[in-house]
Amino acid sequence: MNLFARMLDLIYPPRCAVCGGFLSDEKLGEDLKDLPFCRTCLEGFVEIKSPLCPACGRPYASGIQEDHWCEDCLRKRPHYDSARAAFLYEGSLMKAIHAFKYEEKGHLANPLGSLLASFAEKSFADQEGLLIIPVPLHPKRLRQRGFNQSLLLARHIASRLGADLDFLSLRRIRYTTPQTGLNSDERRKNVRKAFEVVDRQAVRGRTLLLVDDVATTGSTLNECARVLKRAGAREIHALVLARTSLR
Fold first, then answer.
1. d(CA 133, CA 231)
2. Are residues 39 and 152 in the same domain?
3. pLDDT tens-digit series, residues 14-56
4. In terms of domains, do 36 and 50 share one?
5. Residues 90 and 165 grouped into a single domain
6. Domain of 226, in residue numbers
7. CA distance linking residue 208 with residue 228, whole number of Å
8. Residue 234 — very low, low, confident or very high, per pLDDT cuts 50/70/90?
């Protein structure tokens, strides 16, 4: 750290982006030391591990320890080939994502994107010719928020993997109400025919990594995957920063 940065830290001590507490000089590991989160909040970022559904990636709270398909995926297979999430959508991470999206803290795209890129590197580094596609926002929602959080996260993943990034071929063409508060059926209907592929040649025959910030039922990811598969995509994997667990 240079002298100017040290002086700034003395005058304006860095605070945790989640709880607001002062950041200490605790050793957090090389991959965590530059993140604007305190140790307590970082410990609240719960990584998703087995057992989980190999199709949609939803984790199981208890029961059989081996990975196994969930009831929803057994009833109707998703249009994507697999979906994975780095963390559970709860606790301090949920607060961080909420601040990122709704409290004008766009700077959190860097630490959150770095965390997701590290997860993607472990899971998809061996995929050749991968094309990264973020879930798009409707232009009206984009004007309201000022940025597409999925695109900001996707840029970190593309940079880390050295993969192509395409944020133009998939477009949101229908303005929908927020998914929050809707049940599973309502979520599916809400996003039905909300997306279209405007450049089929760009995705035809490609292996895609579809990126979003949060997944609950996976309806948005599934609808995006549906239109991308119809446009000729060979294989689609979905990746989100966080998702809810199966209770």
1. 14
2. no
3. 889 899 888 876 655 556 667 899 989 999 999 999 999 999 9
4. no
5. yes
6. 44-243
7. 9
8. very high
